[in-house]
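Ticket #4471: structure export looks truncated?
Reporter: QA, pipeline team
Priority: medium

Steps to reproduce: submit the single chain below to the structure queue and open the exported record.
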Amino acid sequence: EDGKKYLIFGQDPDVLKALCANVLSWILSTFAPSLMSHLLPPCAEEEATICVSSSSGRSNKTRCISIGRPGGLEQLRLVYLKDGIVTVGYNLTDFCPPPFTPRVDKSNLIPPGCVVLNNEAFSVNYADCCIRWGLYESAKRFVGWPIVPGFDIAGTIDLVGGNSGDFKSGDRVFGITLFGAYSSRVLVPVEQLRKVPEHLTTAEAAAIPAVAFTALHALSLAGHFPGKSKFQNKAILIHSAAGGVGSMLVQMSKILGLSPVVGVVGSSSKVN
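Actual output as written to the record:
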């Protein structure tokens, strides 16, 4: 039947495929590390030779963490991209496919409504582990391999495309990209950015977007957002209340006037 999902030994074939890829990666990295390069071939946008500035001791090229195939931590590669190339999310496919752009080192090369961000901080989420394992559905569907993981970004705007509102070079901003955050430079639509409040550090701002959006989505599914709650009973039970999304849900629930707010955690050490 159309849309029917077939199982192998009661398991999703995609899960079994990812499992086999993870096992192969572990075997090679453990017993034959010299063969790992065959699992992680360089991409066309990658710079083969890195020229390091003598004044700063660091390269000014885009640096990112690229994952070439499913596996463990051994699949994480620090990649230097060619001049003018940055990482990009999958929602700018009208301009270029992810995870890398063509040259965007001048404002007239940047698509309208977008900026190039000098990314100074990004957060690490559990979803990023699922991406590396090969189990994150939207990563497989919209990006594939290689992929630069990560959603949350925060830093300073470098270059600005046309129709970008009141954003300008030098603005300190934070926001979200649909993959591509593990990078020093990211092309991102301005509608996915907000200016960092003065009382927040850049790192603090980078810790907000993904967990906040997930928490708001959960509250929306529960009928408490947007607008007034659909229910007379304002009590709410939050599982994993000590985690990133859970702790955000606790705070948002209080702001929305839900009461009592009851949190469940995995151990007594997480209560405080």
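Status: closed, not a bug. The export was complete when the record was re-opened. Leaving a note from the reviewer for reference: Helices lie at 13-31, 36-39, 126-133, 137-142, 202-206, 209-221, 244-255.
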